[in-house]
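Lab meeting tomorrow. Please check the following:
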Amino acid sequence: MRPLLSPDAIHPAIKETVSAYHSDIVQEVIQAVAADGVVVVGMKQNPIVKKARKSLQVAGIEFTYLEYGSYTSQWHKRLALKMWSGWATFPMIFVDQMLIGGNAELQALLKDPDAQSSSLKRI
């Protein structure tokens, strides 16, 4: 398991700066994850994000898509999401309020007929 910096190891003078870093974007994702069964967080021009979305569409699985910039824009917003989730790449895919990973992990779940997630069960 990747070690995380303890909140006690952050100096009081910067705690607010750390916790407020693009918190609006993090809250937007938290709200979507709480409200919807499947959420894909991605960015423009990323072919892996497009593959994940296409796979969900082909499987007939409804999802919410949140897009934050492209390779050259809004990187700071995506950084806040990476810091929050601990997942370093896009897409970030959430199923039943749990981060399942990215496209490779999604493909494995879609191929598994015994997938535990009700939101990914085929109709």
